[in-house]
Amino acid sequence: MSSTQTPAPEPTSTPGGDALREAVHAGLPGAIADLSSLVRIPSVSWDGFDPAQVRASAEAVKALVEGLGIFDTVSIASAPIGDSGVHGQPAVLASRPAREGKPTILLYAHHDVQPPGDDADWDSSPFEPTLVGDRLYGRGAADDKAGVMTHIAALRAFREVHGEDFGLGLAVFIEGEEEFGSRSFARFLVENRDALQADAIVVADSDNWNTTTPALTVALRGNVTFALTVSTLGHASHSGMFGGAVPDAMMATILLLASLWDADGSVAVDGLRSIEMATPEYTEELLRSEAALLDGVAPIGTGEILSRLWAKPSVTVTGINAPSMVNASNTLIPSVTVKISARIAPGQPATEAYDAIVAHLRAHAPFGARLAFTDVDCGNPFLVDTSGPSVADARAAMAEAWGVEPVDTGIGGSIPFVSDLVATFPAAEILVTGVEDPDSRAHSPNESLHLGVFHRAILTEALLLAKLEARA
Ligand code: BES
Ligand code: MN
Ligand code: MN
Questions:
Q1: Nearest ligand 1 atom, CA 443
Q2: N or C, which end of the chain has less CB nearby within 10 Å?
Q3: 171-211 pLDDT tens trace
């Protein structure tokens, strides 16, 4: 977007900036190699996937952090999920106290990944890192093993230039279950409070405006996901016997789900809130190309396109358990389960949004169909306070590293642990950065990282560390 791409006024000069630039450049092949090794570990954090792989991924990250040689403690830690006694996935935690009144910065990313889906939908094997042109393909190559390696590579460059004897306090938290809703984070936070305490927190898990323009994420939507089971019959029967006189569960589910949206595709659930947000210009043409909208298919919703993505709710049906086509006999289906994934606008607590969706579904259940709700997960939205000095330093570091001023963006996605963290540390400044771009296709087949973005993200973070170290 040329209208948004503003050249940086003049290259602000971070102390030691040129040396950092050299060190980041020289370290890039090693960072790509280490990233490739991480991508080879299929660390899917969801139930039903091998937890030993998430453990192996945590061990690999721990070795990378230890290899920096600048931390007092590096450990693998996990916490129980609520009061269940079941432990969440392993995270890597490292810390080094500040000296001489310098600030402490916490670097966050996650080493778990989404399931790969069907291998046949990928052009290369999902866990075999594959370089094509400027992009490295593989599950987690962008989301968020690139975030993990951005921290490692920035710290390597920082150490090379500043030596081991610096005053900046450092903490590293590489989570192992972000893609599963950070379900043990509340307890993890209680148990590791001291190690997570910081003046500023870099959350390297978001997007950039495009591959040449950086973004600082200032708004995140929340999420509500759950499984909805719709039942109408005690057992299945021949559709010729009773079809037309009793509702099957598929029919009831289709009618019920259809009530969730207006004719223009806006969410039609009372009690789901939206906010007003000024958004950069973004044309329908750009939406069509970035989202791969097919010719002749219309966008949905109303208002500015980016406000639909950042400031309004959405409801998506992401899965269905019903007989597959090979078993599609002429039968009335007694019960259907769907997975529903909703995005919540900044400002609304996720549990309040969940209650509104449940109330809507109960009020619209056709023919008295029975509804059951299970596997509920709620994550709160977040609005970043951008008034602090570290946000200014982060913006300046982006401009210096990319040669272009950053755009303030919202994201339609969610990073639920952020609001938990801020509830505990209200004074900490939150810097949501990242290494994705609109073509990264996180969660989808052919996920990839743009290596130019990776390079600039590492340099940005190295410059930011140097700016914080230079503070009196
Ligand atoms: N990195 C994403 C968040 C994100 C999404 C950043 C879109 C930029 C653009 C993160 O890993 C993620 O996918 N979060 C999940 C959270 C969910 C599992 C609770 C999401 O948004 O679906
Ligand atoms: Mn992520
Ligand atoms: Mn993700």
A1: 13
A2: C
A3: 999 999 999 999 999 999 999 999 999 999 999 999 999 99
